[in-house]
What we know:
By secondary structure, the chain is of the alpha/beta class. It has 2 domains: 1-41 and 193-226, no CATH class; 45-191 and 238-274, Vaccinia Virus protein VP39 (Rossmann fold), CATH 3.40.50.150. Helix content is 34%, strand content 25%. The protein has helices at 44-52, 57-60, 69-72, 76-91, 106-113, 125-134, 169-179, 196-206, 228-237, 254-263, and strands at 16-22, 25-30, 36-39, 95-100, 116-122, 139-141, 154-160, 180-191, 224-225, 241-248, 268-274. The strands form 2 sheets. Strands 6-5-4-7-8-11-10 form a 7-stranded mixed beta sheet, with helices on both faces. The longest helix is centred in the N-terminal third of the chain and has 16 residues, at 76-91. The radius of gyration is 18 Å and the shape is globular. The structure holds zinc ion. Zinc ion (ZN) binds at residues 8, 10-11, 13, 30, 32-33, 35.
Amino acid sequence: MTQLIGRCPLCKVSDTIQIARQEINNLMQCRNCGLLYRHPAPAPEDYEKLNNDLDYAWYKEFDLAQFDFTRFKKTNQYFQIQRRLKYVQRYKSSGNLLDVGCGLGFFVQEAAGLGFSATGIDISQKTIKWAQETLHIDVRAGKLEEMNFHAGQFDIVTLWHVLEHMPDPLGTLRYLYRLIKSNGYIFVELPNVAGIDIRVKNFLSRYRLKKHPWCHFSMPEHLYEFNSATFRRLAASAGLQILYWTTLSRSPNPLLTFLYDKTKFGNKMLFVLGK
Ligand SMILES: [Zn+2]
């Protein structure tokens, strides 16, 4: 395939190959460490505009002016929140919790309801305004580095499908390392590029058997795609230890989740990181 000039943001080696293309966006793979990343990286103003637009599919179908909480509690999104909280509670049942990229703030709301002192941040002004006015929770609009959080402030930091959207995942993890206590934890959930769904969709895209080839890489929103090996390298580069990891199913089906955990072919990965 076409060779493009690009330097791996993780290992800094210039040996990359283009593996997918959608309009102006290329998905590159580093042949040294295996990281997948979008090239060219977006300009900062484009990145902010993209993330400030309320365009994520699942809540398009909800009327935010008159949010139907009863219906929301029957959705897969609500199930995911409960599953995530169960993982967090294996490690801590109270304390200061920061949810980075909190979106509409539902995870923050549920964590606060369980007794955590929960704060959320998001660069989307629109979602934060909605969360403040509707859920009345502690959420703030802006970038992590602008928040004046202090070293060792948090027991728990969570990033649920957020890190792959951020321009500098390594810088972000290094920053979060300072924000957690010495016995604090960082929870990261993100897509697994080695998951069974993506493998099948790659095959179909390669042979033009898929209606929208490569759209499963969610360009332009996703700037990176990880597998367990590239994520391990990222965490280690930030000085963090992996205390636990698993792969998960997208659906609430407990049998699929169990199978995916055993085979590590699940479509999502969850990592628990510590110092
Ligand atoms: Zn690399």
